[in-house]
Amino acid sequence: MMRYKEEKEAKKEAFRKYLESSGVVDALTKVLVALYEQDDKPSSALEFVQQKLGGPTASEYATLQAEMSDLRTKYNELLCKHEDACKELEELKNQNSSVSPSTKETINGEPLKDEV
Hints:
The chain is mainly α. The protein is 72% helix and 3% strand. The chain has helices spanning 2-21, 24-37, 45-52, 58-98; strands at 106-107, 110-111. This is c-Myc-binding protein homolog.
């Protein structure tokens, strides 16, 4: 039982050092001090902290989610159009390769020239 507590304390200490070395503790401390020093406390402490840390507000997040949804829809539509165009191109290639030179259409009595 004692060994379990020691391991747990060691993990906590390692995590605390990790947070300190990566600057998380300092950033959170600065934000919390700024919140504490506010004369007029914001209605949402969480939004205040998110803004100070550089995250979007709740309304900005909702706007970004809606924009992402619209872009996914447009992407899927364009992907379908692209796949259809690829299929059509493949069909045209297959039709063109199956037509013999003597049966190709002509313009003004002259055979069509193959474009490279």
